[in-house]
Amino acid sequence: MIQGDMRDTMLSIRRALRGRCPNCGRGRLFAGYLRQVDRCAACGEPWGELRADDAPPWLTILVVGHLVAPVALWLVKYSSLPDWAISGLLAVAALLLCLVLLPLAKGLFLAAIWASRARSS
Length: 121
Fold this sequence. Notes:
There is one protein chain. By secondary structure, the chain is mostly helical. Helices cover 55% and strands 0% of the residues. It has one domain. The longest helix is centred in the C-terminal third of the chain and has 33 residues. It starts with 8 loop residues before the first helix and ends in a 6-residue tail after the last helix. The mean pLDDT is 92.
C-alpha cells in the first residue's frame, strides 16, 4: 500500500493498467467498462471524486490514429484488396483498438492524477 507523502507514480500506473486500485493494488478500480468505483473495497481510497474528463479519449484517439494510419497507407499502396474491404478492415481495427485502449487510458490518467495529489474542483 502506498501511503505517506511520497506516491510511486509508476507503480500506481501499473496497478491501474491492470484495473486495480493504484493505492493498494487489491481492489478494483472500475465498477463497469469505464465507470470507476466510489471507494476501493480493499483500502477505502475514494475514487469517485477523481475525474479524468477528456484526457482518456484524447490519448486513445492519438494512439489509434498513429497505429492505424501507417497500416492504411500501406494497404492502399501495396494491397490488392478493393477499397471497400480496406475501409471495412480499418474501421473494425480502429473500433477494436479504441474499445481496448480507452479503459487503459482512463486508468492511466486516474492513477497519474491520484499520484500527483491533484483533485477535481
